[in-house]
Amino acid sequence: MNIKENVPISELTTMRLGGKARYVIEIQDLKDIPTAYNFAAEKKLPTWIMGGGANTIGQDAGFAGVILLNKLKGIEVVSETSDEVVVRAMGGEIWDDLVDFTCERGYSGIEALSKIPGTVGAAPVQNIGAYGQDIATVIESVEAWDRESHELIILSNTEMQMSYRSTIFNTGKDTGRYFIVAVNLILANDGHMQPPFYNALQKYIDTHKITDFSPMSIRKIVSEIRAEKLPDPAVEASAGSFFKNIFVTDDEAAAVTAAGIKVWEKENGKKMINSGYLIEGAGLKGKELHGMKVSDKAALVLINKSAKSYADLDAARTEIRNAVQEKYGFMLEQEPVEIPTGVK
Fold first, then answer.
1. Do both 319 and 265 map to the same domain?
2. CA spacing 20 to 30 A to 190: which of 2, 81, 212, 267?
3. Which of 108, 141, 238, 241 is catalytic?
4. One domain for residues 38 and 13
5. How high is the mean pLDDT of the chain?
6. What is the DSSP letter of 106?
7. What is the pTM assigned to this prediction?
């Protein structure tokens, strides 16, 4: 177990903001988990779990506690039939490495989630989804350390209460209770996505006259689409999509459509307003505010061009929210989580 002191959170997150964490512990083995929690308890300090820091914002005051970095590694095929396969991946694996592993073997179910930054352990926390696929539809269970019962447990799909960007891991009374050790996915064996596809995916397929819908083909397509629209956090500091999309009722959808606002209907019948569409409509696409740039390719993304503090981010966020609310009447909700500064 590797313990470091006074580590800048800006070095742990892709937005590259944040003061120092009192301690950072890298979890490299299962036995490190209870040891790390005992370390924090002995010092009477709170804990915060992190993977790759791709969906996390640090504040200027830092974190007066212990950050646990999930570095658990390993991917394996647990079982396989002619129809489906169960893949187990440890929480510290890079998510895109897992997608590549499954696509190389022809397994379908997460190929459209290619190039999403972050770790495997973070994927169910945020309930990731993109281009017509969601982890919620393929995740069987997670293995997690329960800090209350001090034991390794298994949580089923239903127990995780997965909804749009929300699960028991990041919402409600059990936030921070579980350290995700491994994720078990049920994927299709020798299958693939079927048309019609998600709009951006279908447009690319039609334009390039693609007829190969195998997992690896879809992975390559999605990778190219994302490379065109989204900054690489390793090159440009960002946290991916910064604002959540907005879901509306049928009556609300009818009202906003009449007002000229575009509404998308999802595969499950739910109606959604793309927050990036609203930000662009408010005239902010490509604008730089307090060192934070609204991406000129995807307005949902904020890029840290020259911001040095959380205060800069907060000022930019406030301007964007106010502009959208003033023009459209909707208050945007932030997607990345923020590391608290004080002791609970």
1. yes
2. 267
3. 241
4. yes
5. 94
6. T
7. 0.91
